[in-house]
C-alpha cells in the first residue's frame, strides 16, 4: 500500500511540475506605428517660376483656414506670400485667393499666372507641392483674356489632413 501511495504521490508531484513549469510565452502585441498628431501647414502663393517673375502690378487677397478652423483674410498682399500654422489632425486646410490690378499700372508685356500650393509637414515627411505657371501676354491680350475669363484671377486649394 505504501508503494501505491508513493507511486500516486510521485505521479501527482510530477504532473504538478510539468504544469507548473510550463514556460509562459505570450504572443507579442505589435506596437502600432504612431501617427503624427502635430502638423505644420504652409500656404504658399509665389510669383517666380522657371526664371519668370510675375508683373509686380498684381495684388492678392487671400483667405485661409487658421489653426482654430477660422477663415482669415489678408488684403492687398504682395507676392510671394507664405503662411505657416501648426495644426492637429483632423484638419481641413483651405485657401482661396483673387488677384487684382490697376489697368494703368499694367506693363506692355504682362507676366501673369497662379503658382500656389498647400504643403503639410510632419515628423518623418511632408506632402503637397507648389504648382502653376507664368505666361507672358501683350497687355491688350491679357485684358481681353480676363474680360472673357474673369475666373482666371481666382484660385482655390484644399487639403484634408487625417
General description of the model:
This protein has helices spanning 2-20, 139-148, and strands at 38-46, 48-49, 52-53, 59-65, 71-77, 81-88, 91-100, 109-122, 125-127, 131-138, 154-161. With 162 residues, the protein is an alpha+beta fold. The chain has one domain (38-161). Strands 1, 6, 8, 9 and 10 form a 5-stranded antiparallel β-sheet that branches. Strands 5-4-7-11 form a 4-stranded antiparallel β-sheet, with no helix packed on it. Strand 4 and strand 5 form a beta hairpin. The chain is rod-shaped. The N and C termini lie far apart (75 Å). The mean pLDDT is 88.
Please provide a brief summary of the model.
With 162 residues, this protein is α+β, with helices and mostly antiparallel strands. It has helices at 2-20, 139-148, and strands at residues 38-46, 48-49, 52-53, 59-65, 71-77, 81-88, 91-100, 109-122, 125-127, 131-138, 154-161.
The radius of gyration computed from the alpha-carbon positions, rounded to a whole number of angstroms, is 33 Å
Helical coverage, percent range: 10-25%
In terms of DSSP E residues, the strand content is over 45%
Name the average pLDDT: 88
The number of helical runs is 2
Order of helices and strands: HEEEEEEEEEEHE
**Main β-sheet: number of strands, strand sense, barrel status?**
5 strands, antiparallel
Number of domains: 1
| Number of E-type strands | 11
Shape: rod-shaped
Q: Report low-confidence residues grouped into runs of 5 or more.
A: none
Span of the ends, CA to CA: 75 Å
How would you classify the helix and strand content by structural class? alpha+beta
Amino acid at each position: 500500500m505504501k508503494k501505491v501511495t508513493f507511486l500516486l504521490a510521485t505521479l501527482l508531484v510530477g504532473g504538478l511540475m510539468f504544469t507548473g513549469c510550463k514556460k509562459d510565452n505570450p504572443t507579442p502585441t505589435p506596437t502600432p506605428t504612431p501617427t503624427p498628431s502635430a502638423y505644420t501647414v504652409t500656404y504658399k502663393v509665389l510669383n517666380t517660376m522657371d526664371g519668370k517673375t510675375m508683373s509686380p502690378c498684381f495684388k492678392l487677397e487671400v483667405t485661409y483656414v487658421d489653426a482654430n478652423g477660422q477663415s482669415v483674410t489678408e488684403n492687398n498682399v504682395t507676392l510671394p506670400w507664405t503662411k505657416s500654422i501648426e495644426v492637429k489632425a483632423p484638419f481641413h486646410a483651405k485657401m482661396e485667393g483673387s488677384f487684382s490690378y490697376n489697368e494703368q499700372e499694367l506693363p506692355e508685356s504682362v507676366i501673369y499666372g497662379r503658382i500656389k500650393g498647400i504643403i503639410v509637414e510632419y515628423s518623418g515627411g511632408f506632402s503637397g507641392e507648389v504648382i502653376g505657371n507664368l505666361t507672358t501676354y501683350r497687355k491688350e491680350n491679357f485684358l481681353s483674356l480676363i474680360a472673357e475669363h474673369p475666373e482666371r484671377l481666382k484660385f482655390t486649394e484644399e487639403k484634408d489632413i487625417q
